[in-house]
TrEMBL record:
This is CALCIUM-BINDING EF-HAND FAMILY PROTEIN-RELATED. Keywords: Calcium. The keyword Calcium applies. Gene3D superfamilies: EF-hand. Residues 1-28 are annotated as: Disordered. Residues 40-75, 290-325 form the EF-hand domain. GO terms for molecular function: calcium ion binding. InterPro entries: EF-hand-dom_pair (IPR011992), EF_Hand_1_Ca_BS (IPR018247), EF_hand_dom (IPR002048). SUPFAM superfamilies: EF-hand. SMART domains: EFh (SM00054). Residues 1-11 have a biased composition (Polar residues). It comes from Salix viminalis (Common osier).
C-alpha cells in the first residue's frame, strides 16, 4: 500500500515538474489516478462516509449530504494526519493535489451556476427523491462526478502560477519593455482630466501573467498590491499632454515597486484560457449521425402542443442542451458568447412564440449553430477564468 502511494506521489511530482516554467497544470489526471486506485479511493470513501453519517445508520440523508455538496472542494478534506494509521496512507501528494484541483474547479464552475450546481449534485445522489444514500451509491455517484470533472479539466486545464515579482522585473528591465509599453500607451484613451495615475492603473490592467503581473482586475490584487504600491509611490502629474517618454519612466518605477510587493507577498494565480472559434460546431455539423443523435436528445423533453408542434421560444433551451456537444459554454456562463448567441437567436425571431413542427424546429436549430459557427470563425471569442489568492 505504501509503495503504491509513494509511486503515485513521485509520478504526480514528475508530471508537475514537466508542466513548463513555474506553472503547474491541473488537467484532471490526478483525479483519474485517485479514482482509479481502488484501495486509496475506497479508503477515502470509507472515511468520508463515516464522517457524514452522523446518526450512524449506514445511510446518508439529504441533511447529511448537504455539507458535502455545499462545498465539494472542502468536502475532499482528509482526517488530520497522524490521527489513524489506516488513514495516513491517504496523505499522498496525489490526493492533496486532487483536493486543490476540485477546489479551484469549483471556484470556476460555481461562479457560473452556484445554486443549480448544489441542487443538481444532490439530485444525482438521491435521484430527485427524499431517499437516503448507501455507501455504494455514494461511491458510485462521487466517482462519476469526479471523472466527469476530470474530463472537463482534460479539455480545459487550469494552470497555477506563483507570481513573486521576478518575471515582472525581468520584463521591465528586458529588451521588449519599451516597444510593448509604447504600444499600450498608444492605445490609451486620453480624455480631459485623465492623470498619470489613471494611465498607470489602466496599463497595469493590460499586463498579463506572461509579463509577471497578476490580474489587477481581481479585488484582492487591486487592494493589496496595486493600491498599496500607488500609495507608497509618489506619482506626480506632469504637463499635459503626457509624453510617451515620461510615461515609460514613471510606469517603470511603479512596476518595480509592484514587483517588490510581490516578492514580499507572492500571489497564486489559477487561470484557464478558452478560445471559441466554432470548430466544435463544425465537427458536429459534419457528422450527420452525431448531429441527429444530439438533436433527438435535445428534443426529448421539448414541450409540444396537441399537434406535436413546439414553440420557437424553446430554441434557447434546446441550444443550451446541445452546447457541450458543440463545444459551446452554457448560456449565461460567458458574456461574450451570450452576445453572439443572442444576436443569432434574434435573427431567427426565436422569441416570437410561433409554433413549428419538430422537423422545422431541428432545421432552425441546425441553422442557428451554423450561423454561430460562421461568426466565431470570423471573430473568435477568447475567455479567461482567473482566481487569485495570497
Amino acid at each position: 500500500m505504501e509503495k503504491s502511494a509513494e509511486g503515485s506521489s513521485r509520478a504526480s511530482t514528475e508530471k508537475r515538474k514537466t508542466s513548463g516554467g513555474n506553472g503547474q497544470v491541473l488537467d484532471g489526471s490526478d483525479i483519474m489516478e485517485l479514482v482509479g486506485n481502488e484501495e486509496v479511493f475506497g479508503s477515502y470513501i470509507d472515511h468520508k462516509f463515516q464522517e457524514l453519517d452522523r446518526d450512524r445508520d449506514g445511510k446518508l440523508s439529504l441533511k447529511e449530504l448537504e455539507p458535502a455538496v455545499a462545498d465539494i472542494g472542502s468536502a475532499l478534506g482528509l482526517p488530520a494526519q497522524g490521527s489513524s494509521p489506516d488513514s495516513d496512507h491517504l496523505y499522498t501528494e496525489s490526493v492533496s493535489w486532487v483536493s486543490l484541483t476540485v477546489a479551484l474547479y469549483f471556484s470556476h464552475l460555481t461562479s457560473i451556476i452556484v445554486f443549480p450546481l448544489h441542487v443538481g449534485v444532490l439530485n444525482e445522489f438521491t435521484h430527485g427523491k427524499q431517499e437516503k444514500v448507501s455507501k455504494t451509491g455514494f461511491k458510485d455517484v462521487l466517482s462519476d462526478f469526479l471523472l466527469g470533472m476530470a474530463s472537463g479539466l482534460k479539455r480545459d486545464p487550469i494552470v497555477i502560477l506563483r507570481i513573486d515579482g521576478e518575471d515582472l522585473l525581468e520584463f521591465i528591465n528586458g529588451p521588449d519593455y519599451e516597444a510593448e509599453m509604447a504600444l499600450l500607451f498608444s492605445q490609451l484613451e486620453s480624455p480631459d482630466g485623465s492623470s498619470l495615475h489613471d494611465h498607470i492603473v489602466k496599463v497595469l490592467e493590460q499586463l498579463t501573467v506572461d509579463q509577471g503581473m497578476p490580474p489587477s482586475s481581481e479585488s484582492w490584487v487591486k487592494s493589496n498590491i496595486v493600491e498599496r504600491t500607488l500609495q507608497s509611490c509618489t506619482v506626480q502629474d506632469h504637463d499635459k499632454p503626457l509624453s510617451q517618454e515620461t510615461f515609460l519612466v514613471e510606469f517603470k518605477k511603479v512596476a518595480g515597486s509592484v514587483a517588490q510587493h510581490l516578492k514580499e507577498q507572492p500571489v497564486i494565480v489559477a487561470h484557464c484560457e478558452n478560445t471559441f472559434e466554432g470548430s466544435g460546431i463544425k465537427r458536429l455539423l459534419c457528422n450527420k449521425f452525431e448531429l441527429d443523435k444530439t438533436l433527438n436528445t435535445a428534443m426529448e423533453n421539448a414541450p409540444k402542443d396537441r399537434n406535436g408542434k413546439i414553440s420557437k421560444e424553446y430554441l434557447r433551451v434546446a441550444l443550451d442542451a446541445i452546447a457541450p456537444s458543440a463545444g459551446l459554454p452554457p448560456i449565461g456562463a460567458i458574456h461574450e458568447m451570450d452576445e453572439v448567441i443572442g444576436e443569432v437567436l434574434k435573427m431567427m425571431n426565436a422569441d416570437d412564440g410561433k409554433l413549428v413542427k419538430e422537423d422545422e424546429f431541428k432545421k432552425m436549430l441546425t441553422e442557428i449553430m451554423g450561423t454561430i459557427m460562421l461568426q466565431l470563425e470570423c471573430k473568435p471569442r477568447l475567455h479567461f477564468f482567473k482566481y487569485c489568492c495570497p
